[in-house]
Amino acid sequence: MKTIQQITQKQRAEEEWTARYGHVRPTVSTDNRGKKFIAIGSRIEASERWKFIPDFLLDYVPHVFGKDWWDAEVGKPEPERHPLFQWRTACYRQKQAAGPGDKVAVRPDGMALAYLSFAFNLFAIEDNSRLDDLLLQRLKHPEQFQGALHEVFAEATCLRAGFKIEKEDENDRAMRHAEFTATHKMTDEMFSVEAKSKHRAGVLGQAGRPQPHEKLKLQFGHLINDAAAKNPKHPLVIFLDTNLPFRSAHHVYGNDPAVPSRYIRGFCDRVRREHGDKYPFAMLVLTNTPSHYGLPEEQPSPNHVHAMMTEPPGTNRRNALQALYDAVPLHGNIPNEFPDF
Predict the structure, then answer these.
(1) Are the C-beta atoms of 326 and 136 separated by less than 8 Å?
(2) What is the arithmetic mean of pLDDT over 217-221?
(3) In the chain, fewer beta carbons within 10 Å around the N or the C end?
């Protein structure tokens, strides 16, 4: 029988996990005969190499994507390899540079952080039994990877915020569909969620050569319009990835995430005017995670985020949206130790 002290310690550990990683299930694992066994949704994987969670995440994506896909990437010239393969290579490079040891502190560079963040997001989705084959196939395809990557971010953020997710029926051709429906477990408020990401030549698997940073276009209105044109069943939440290097993003977002910059104020005003002086969304989440722009061994630049909620305070809908807002900055928090509670 557990003592009151043990129960209190368990509750405190669970609260600390939720504060740092959100409402995703703590990693369920056990040790047996020199191996670490990890539960992932309805299946179990094991390895003797997994001392810490990043060790597991290094192997997780290749296992999910499949050996044939991974072997095909190995056979390609390095510049032609999938972004995920290049990010994972950066993880191994940093791990090897750290040298041997049971526990070595490594601060990931931009590409390594991009990989670990993605892998942990994807793990959270599968662990909640939400990983479908269509999303997986899009992630594998270089030209579709960017959009699927941002959808993974949006799904994982909703899970961290305490939402459950249901994909819409894409076989229903009578109407266009949002990415998924998210229902807040505490309030039962339902939202249609759209994930939009700005494509840029030569970045995140897109064809062409990267443009000079000073020439990057800062036009995002068409992405808002495309999401709104789907006429979703529920109040619309749009996750919009501006996909900019840090300095360009700083110009867009400004210094204080709580205060909209001059650019964002002008952008939101234009969106409202184009939609009959009414915002077409319940919440717009603008994010910029520039880690993939970093050079090898270069420390990752900070993320930018700005969210706008059109629902007035004091309602269940606003409370649900606030939970979503609070979960956005948790992206990039990667646990190291396997929890023992």
Answers:
(1) no
(2) 90
(3) N
List for the chain the helix, strand, coil content (%; round to 5): 45, 15, 40
User: Order of strands, edge to edge, in the sheet holding 163-167?
Assistant: 163-167, 180-184, 190-197, 236-241, 283-288, 304-309
Q: Which residue in the block uniquely carries the two structure tokens 């892998």? A: 119
The mean per-residue pLDDT over the stretch 185-208 comes to: 94
C-alpha pair distances (Å), 154 with each of 150, 179, 226, 246? 6, 9, 17, 21
Q: What is the pLDDT of residues 240-270, one digit of tens each?
A: 999 999 989 988 999 888 889 999 999 999 9
Q: What is the pTM of this model?
A: 0.93
CB 302 within 8 A of CB 320: no
> Both tokens of residue 288?
């910029």
Give me the pLDDT at residue 100, please: 61
Q: Give me the chain's average pLDDT, please.
A: 91
**How far is the C-alpha of 134 from the C-alpha of 166, rounded, in Å?**
14
Residue 175, pLDDT above cutoff 80: no
Q: Which helix (H) or strand (E) holds 133?
A: helix 133-140
Confidence of residue 316 (pLDDT cuts 50, 70, 90): very high
Q: Read out DSSP for 83-108?
A: HHHHHHHHHHHHHHHH-S-SS-----
C-alpha to C-alpha distance for 287 and 303, rounded to whole angstroms: 7
Cα separation of 12 and 3, whole Å? 14
| For the chain, domain boundaries | 4-330
Q: How far apart are CA 241 and CA 10, in angstroms?
A: 37
